Amino acid sequence: MNYHAIAIDGPAGAGKSTVAKMLAKRLGYVYIDTGAMYRATTYKAMRLKINLENAEEYSFLETTEMKFIEDVLYVDGEDITKKIRTNVVNQNVSLVASHIPVRNELVRLQQKIASEANVVMDGRDIGTVVLPKADLKIFMTATVEERARRRHEENIANNIESDYQKIYKDIERRDKIDSSRAYNPLRQAEDAIYLDTSHLDIDTVSEVIYQMFMKIIKDNKE
Length: 222
Hints:
The chain is α/β, with parallel strands linked by helices. The protein is built from eight helices and eight strands.
């Protein structure tokens, strides 16, 4: 059976996860938050107290189980959904995600999931590396100011201590790391549609992408 896939890439705070969740729910597809998978790896690495800068110390991933049940991420049977949304994880996730062994293992897992179900997947290298043959590829972005504002408001809504200026600087730093790493950097796939959401609300963005996808499905049937 051939499964369908929507790939949404973009920098930190662009609204990818929120839009992807909405689309997956509307379509009845599985939502895969690849950013959460890298956050989970970061969280577990810190809990194991390994040297985050040493790529050879991430062998624990070979025996780590990650599973999404609806919007909840379970790692080794533990719900860590809220535990990975902390400032210390935010500050270290780009470093962890830059390691080749980490990316290789998580990409393998992401591709396996997509081979078994219809998915909406968001991240940094979905359209370029993980799902290069996705039915629809979106590159979603927004200004640093807008992305920092969104993340700040999200933190406040979730009762997480938040400082706008620190978030702004962290997003700038993560953008630089994500786009300049040697292996699978953040970049727009050649056949991806560029979507600046700086002045668009989430409902509008979700509707635009939904209509694009339905047109692709319709055209493929004709």
